[in-house]
Specification:
By secondary structure, this protein is α+β, with helices and mostly antiparallel strands. It has a domain of about 55 residues: Arc Repressor Mutant, subunit A. The protein contains three helices and three strands; from the N terminus they run ββαααβ. It has a three-stranded mixed β-sheet. The longest helix has 20 residues.
């Protein structure tokens, strides 16, 4: 039995393909954490734009529960990168505006 296909997620963040890392550590020698466009979009909508998870879900075209799971994953990845000196890489070409990841 195959899993249910993912709903298309609307991602409007333009920061794909960038990375943030600690100063003084070569990029090639640091552990990398991938942050996907839908995770970045959920962080932006909920934490920067101060939307509720329900409002963010409406903008992204997904349910509030899905936003909650995506947001929890994004926050763990971001906190891990910041506190454990890892690079946070914003994944590119996974999801474009209005397209499915």
């Amino acid at each position: 039995m195959s899993p249910r296909p993912k709903k298309p997620r609307i991602c409007e963040c333009r920061s794909r393909g960038k990375a943030f890392k600690p100063i003084g550590v070569p990029y090639s020698e640091i552990e990398k954490i991938m942050l996907y466009p839908d995770e970045l979009e959920a962080l932006k909508l909920c934490d920067v734009d101060s939307l509720s998870q329900e409002e963010a879900g409406h903008k992204m075209g997904i349910s509030r529960g899905t936003v909650q799971r995506i947001l929890a994953s994004a926050r763990v990845k971001t906190a891990s990168a910041l506190t454990q000196c890892k690079a946070l890489v914003l994944e590119k070409n996974v999801c474009k505006k209005g397209e499915q990841p």
